[in-house]
Amino acid sequence: MGKRRQLIWLYIASDYGSSLLAWYCLYMFRKVVIEGLPFSASLPFQDSQFFVGLIVVPQIWLWLHYISGTYVDLYRKSRLQELVKTALILLLGTLIIFFLLLLDDRVRRYSDYYLTFFVLYISEFTFTFLGRILILNRSKSALRKKKFGFNTLLIGSNQNANDIYEEFSAKNNPFGYNFLGYINLNGATQNKLTTDLKELGRLADLAHVVHQYEIEETIIAIESNEHHQLNDIIIQLADKNVYIRIIPDMYDILSGTTKMNSLIGEAFIEIPPSLLSEWQIITKRWFDVIASTMALIATSPLLLYVAIRIKLSSKGPIFYTQERLGQYGAPFHILKFRSMYTDAEQYGPKLTTDDDPRITPIGKWIRKYRIDELPQFINVIIGEMSIVGPRAERKFFADQIVKQAPYYKHIFKVKPGITSLGMVKYGYASNVDQMVKRLKYDIIYIENMSIVMDFKIIVYTVMTVLYGRGK
């Protein structure tokens, strides 16, 4: 991970330096060409506005690049895609800086505004992309020379897997696949793959192998007679932070599910570990932190009132913590207002039911309006949860759900949420069968995740709270 961080900081430094150079060029152009002042190398240093720009402008650029997901996964970036993305982000940033800092400039002709805009955009684009292409070329060279690579697992061991291994283990492999071994499905054929690589296990060992060897890339290269195992493979990988790449058959190619990100190498059906793009992930995280902070501040009188009522109503702590499963199955402790008596689960884990005698009098009220879940905004700020996401369950119940619905593991691709489509459409579940029925809505959410979808769910949740439709 050290090399990845170094590359990110190098990218940031390059963007910062590019913004300083572009601002200097723009300033000299405005003073010498537009205002007609004589050229002097010391001219910018005689104007306080120049120094204000040196402070403000780079911050705007770095913020825009950050929220657009520029500083994520640099070793996987395509130079052509980076060219297009850079051009679009710089166009947006130029518009912001122009209207924020440059529109009130004194000009002799209206066309000078167009020239100012053009010079800012071209200079920023030239310096920024030049720095980035040099860094990306360096990263691609490191991949080709195998100075850096992604821990890769081949799933399969016969002809298809062998063909893929031979192609990507070539000397000039630009993709950085560092093959650590393979998973043997139905018996391995003697070939280059089985000779060069270590057999790391069978299908039942897949999840353990991914964790043990810190696998980042999985390539599923199975034969036609092994396709019945594909669903089991994907389910085992669903809660893992890995890229899944599948060698397609002709039906997959004709149906349009196959993606080709490079003219070199194989085309794959790709399943990334994250269901959102980089900018959506960052936007969702910013929204979570800002909205959660505002919610805690706005409801602080209510939180204080509820805390006092809980303390006076029954013995025990005000807050209740419980271990739940988060993104990629990682455990965390969820924080809630205590709504039950302290000995509620003395005989083991048990789901709540209507008129549950374990619920305290104040607990019934705060559960009806879902006030008991307000402290979870702290979990959101910490980064363990999101405002919108599938409901976090205990491992005890998650294991039971998986037995009935193995696809339940798909919900671990995202952070659990305070509210969810399942909670809005179905509500609380009193048994595992109901949890499986509610799961349908969480899967629908995951397959249709977007910022717009999150806002819709938040609106429905607010309506649920206002009408007291909780349990």
| Secondary-structure element string | HHHHEHEHEHEHEHEHHEEHHEHEHHH
How many angstroms does the end-to-end distance come to? 45 Å
Question: What radius of gyration results from the CA coordinates?
Answer: 28 Å
Number of helices: 17
Unreliable spans: none
Q: How many separate domains?
A: 3
- What is the residue-mean pLDDT, rounded to a whole number? 86
Largest sheet: 6 strands, mixed
Number of strands: 10
Which bin fits the share of residues in helices?
Answer: 40-55%
Strand order of the largest sheet: 3-2-1-4-5-6
Strand content: 5-15%
Shape: flat
Structural class: alpha/beta
Structure write-up:
The chain has 471 residues and is α/β, with parallel strands linked by helices. It has helices at 2-34, 48-67, 79-102, 111-144, 159-168, 192-196, 206-212, 230-237, 250-254, 278-298, 300-313, 361-368, 376-382, 395-404, 421-425, 432-447, 451-466; strands at residues 150-155, 177-184, 199-202, 217-220, 243-246, 269-271, 319-325, 331-337, 386-388, 417-419. The strands form three sheets. Strands 3-2-1-4-5-6 form a six-stranded mixed sheet, sandwiched between helices. Strands 7-8 form a two-stranded antiparallel ribbon. Helix 14 links the parallel strand 9 (386-388) and strand 10. Helix 2 (48-67) crosses helix 3, helix 3 (79-102) packs antiparallel against helix 4 and helix 11 (300-313) packs antiparallel against helix 12. The model has no long low-confidence stretch (mean pLDDT 86).
